[in-house]
Structures are given as structure tokens and as C-alpha cells.
Amino acid sequence: MSGSCPIRASPPPDGVGGRVPGVDDTALTRKAAAEYVDRLESRDWAGLTTLLAEDVVYEMPQTRERIRGRPAFLRFNADYPGDWHLRVRRVVADGRAAALVLDVRVGHGQQDACVWLELASDGLISRIVDYWPEPYDPPAGREHLVERW
Amino acid sequence: MSGSCPIRASPPPDGVGGRVPGVDDTALTRKAAAEYVDRLESRDWAGLTTLLAEDVVYEMPQTRERIRGRPAFLRFNADYPGDWHLRVRRVVADGRAAALVLDVRVGHGQQDACVWLELASDGLISRIVDYWPEPYDPPAGREHLVERW
After folding, report:
1. How large is the ipTM?
2. B109 at interface of A, judged by CB pairs closer than 8 A
């Protein structure tokens, strides 16, 4: 996948009955996104398996790491160190694509994660891209424009 | 100029005939998201102004910085150092919310940014949240599960 084109809503399987293109896909994608986070948070690996395409691809662009296939992705999550917890802060769904901001907590630490999902035509999650933006100190020179929280 | 709103230039079709709520908002949001990036990339500050609510709020959670109001946000962008360039890699739109991945280049450097937009009921962008995830080295111990690119 090049990722170079904006993701657009996919056409529905059929057009009979006046269905609005993409609306059903969007509803299914929104549900899959919520369930994906729920299954991870509850360490429900069997439940997570049912959401994932067998050839799911997981990418972390910051480290340029890629994991291919459901077994390796499940192992990655099951082995992930720390008592991590996930909560959905934002979700947008659009056809077979979704984006989430997760509130991720490990012990006393907190970090947001940006997660991008793509679903295949069978409704299974076929691609996951995770960004893990870390806190940093703001550069000098813009104090007159900003407030801090 | 300040009273015009290009996003709502043409009214949505009327509600008879089973219009699905939110579909028109999504199309307008998708358009606003694309125009937002285009106006920034072309340093079209007058054009950008017409997309933004006067009380737009811009947040960068990693530095816990917040900028309030259109004038300060325009100044922030106009003053931003470096010959930066933006290209949309992904966009998902959902009602009055959108999420984008931008390919950001400054000189020879490249970084992805995750951008979250919210539109007010008048179609103007009322909230912008930017994440700037930086590259980092992968932790040891998962080499058996991943490939690098």
C-alpha cells in the first residue's frame, strides 16, 4: 500500500433499494473500530481474532516497523510489556477507513496514540497504522501566541 | 469577506426523499479539510481565513500548547520557520469531524503529522488538533515479529 491517496468511501455491495453509498460501510467500520479497541483492552484475543483479516498488516511509521499476518500481530499485542490500558478519545469513520485517538495509560504514564484502520470488503480489519506521538518541549519564540495546559 | 462561507456556498438538497443525516456534513467536511491543507501549502492566508471560525482553537497535545483565535493562528502559521510543504496522505471525514495524515517536508526532512479537525454548524473550522509523531528507534525484543522498511 502506498498510502499516497486519500481514502475514500467505498461503494456498497449493491445499490438496490435507494441505499446511500458508503453509509453502511461507515457504520460497520465505526463498530469495528470500537470493538478493536475493546478487545485489545480486555485482552480478548479470541474476540480480536474475529475482527482481523488473516493477512492483516500492522505498521508503525515512526520506527518503520511492519508486522504481517494475524498470528504475529496477536503475539505482538499479547507480549506487549506493561499494564497498558486503552480508551477511545476520538473516532471518525468514513467508508471502510477509520481514525482514532486513543488515551493510552501504562502505570502512571499517559500518551495519546493515533490509529488508522482499513477494512476489507468482508468487513475484517486489513490494515492498521499506529502513530505514537511523544511529549516534547515547545520551541522558543512562539510564547506570545500560545497558552500552555 | 468575513461574512462569507465558501463551505456552505450551495445549500444541501432538501430533506424529502429519505436523506440520511450527516451525509452532506461529511462531504462538506471532506472539502474543508482538503482546502485547509491547500491554503496552508500555498500560504494563501486570505483563503485560509475564510475557512476558519473567528474563535478557532488550535492545540498541540504533545507540548500542551493552545492557540486561541483566528488572528493568532494565522500569525503562528505565517511565522512558522522553514520552507515547509504539506501533502495529504490520508483523510477520513465523518459528519463535522475529519482526520488527516499529512506528509510534511522541510528541506530534506520528512515527517508525518496527524491532524484532527472539527467544523462548527456554519461549516467553519472551529478546532484543530495537531500531533507531530517523531521517528524513534524500535525497542529490542520484537525483532522476530517485525520487518523494517
Report:
1. 0.84
2. no
